[in-house]
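User: My advisor, Dr. K., asked me to get a structural model of this assembly before our group meeting. I'm new to this, so sorry if the format is off. These are the inputs:
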Amino acid sequence: MDDMILQLKDLHKSFDNVKVLKGITLDVKAGRFLTLLGPSGCGKTTTLRLIAGLDTPDSGSILIGGKDMKGLPPEKRPVNTVFQNYALFPHMNVQKNIAYSLVLRHTDKEEALKKVNELLSIVQLEGYNKRMPAQLSGGQRQRVAIARALACDPQILLLDEPLGALDLQLRRQMQVELKALQKKLGITFIYITHDQEEALNMSDRIAVMNDGCIEQFGSPENIYEHPTTRFAAQFIGQSNIIEGDVVEKVAGGVRVQICENNTIIVKGEYEIGEHLALSVRAERIDYADKADFGFALNGTIKMHSYIGGVLRTTITLQNGQEVLITGANPVSRYPAGCAVQVFWDPAVAAVVERGQGK
Amino acid sequence: MKKKNGALSKLYVILVLFLTYLPVFVVVLYSFNNSKYGNWEGFSFTWYDKLFQNRQIWRSLKNTLILAFSSCFLSILIGTAGAVGMAKSRFRTMNLLENVSMIPMMLPEIILGMAYLAFFSILKIPFGMLTLIIAHTTFCVPYIYINVQSRLVGLDPSFVEAARDLGASPTRAFIDVTLPLIAPAVLSGALLALAMSMDDVVISFFVTGTTSNTLPLQVYSMLKMGVTPEVNALCTLILLVVFGCIGLYYLFMSLYRRRAEKQ
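Assistant: The format is fine. Below is the predicted structure of the whole assembly, which you can bring to the meeting.
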């Protein structure tokens, strides 16, 4: 546990009797780029504010570098924050903004100036010392905010949707830059976003949050390929949730009845009668007139739509459920209305829910 | 609405402005009149000359300035502290408290004046500069309070949070961040308060003492002896100062707004 820079233990927080966090437990290794990913209102910003000390948890504890932060005000914590709206002091120029934390620590003037220039070169804003925040573009303000937060070498940098206000092009560019910056500095980043692409693109670890809880914690690959909850499967990527009851044990797995005459194979050990919900990624499903992998679902092609790069096909299954399939081939051999068989490699499906069958 | 400005509505605006400013203009004009009486006898600075030699007027001017600046200073302290404190606290009676604190602005001055008179008499505080300052501070506080409070409401809390995050204590964050950001509001409130204090007759009339005559009171007592061009000259000078103050206020506000818009 020694290399854990941040440990959150069962954090609870309510605002006006509304439970915002319902037990957040998380361990973060030093030097990681961790993303808290979730829809708005899931408690990710609150979690960040608790770490920064801007709010206090109702219960639970926060350890930074093994030290309990209980009762420590934000100014005494070894973390710094890049705020969502940057919160650059409008009455101070870039240099004064960045040097603010250094001035508070009574850093020698020349040394502070050296540090400011160093930070400005890191964020590629050399020579912007005397500009006022109002004279900067959104992307430049963002860089200044990062430089300011890095000025006194925090152990953890907290970033609250820092790219939210930027246009797509700049966002993509800043994603790359931020990731590179984190690698270069070796500081732990805790990054908040509701954008799954951003999270997958930048993070070493992602914590998927929903409704005050962490749904799943893991590497981007792990989260994407093996979602463990229904929410995680549906929030990230394009997932099909397919449900049914276990009816028979087969070699290496079980057979699950989806609807009349239609069963699928699911890998793993489950009891007969159990109800399973599976997540299958849209790009991992295939269809043809003859199925592989020892099972098939009968369906009818409802429509094709070409969305640039991929062809999205909607197929209506026998039980009325619609599945989404994306394929790289822009033209399909099967026109709409055509009866096909839907199948996938059982290894790519993830069980996201188990329960008692009816 | 703005597009269809008929000739009639233009005429109306001109008429209203004309009627409003005509008396003011007449006063200014007659302050340069050579004659002591109503008829125009040529341009002269005689009355200004006399005015500048009138020691009573100078003394009351001094009183007015002392009064205005000290009550303004006190109300800056009280009003700003009040607004900042209110913005931080959250209790149920806050709205009520806020409305109650606005009442001095709405009460008829004559009632306020009488209230001060009775109050100071009961407490046996001798009437003079002290009572004037207390009274003026009381009715000046709301101007500062309203201005600062509305600025604070619009102030993003993340500025202060960012300061704290970067290592500032609550006090330090207030001095470094909150104060500079609300300073324009404090200043514009202070200008209003200054103008209100310098201009006040009714309340001052009730709480002044024998040695603490203010300029407006001086004008009032001079008028009792009949309108002399000297009073006109005095009025003209006061007008000059007042317009100057108002001009400064608007200049300041527009600069400030332009800066705010940029952000």
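One thing worth pointing out at the meeting: The radius of gyration of chain B is 23 Å.

User: Perfect, thanks a lot.
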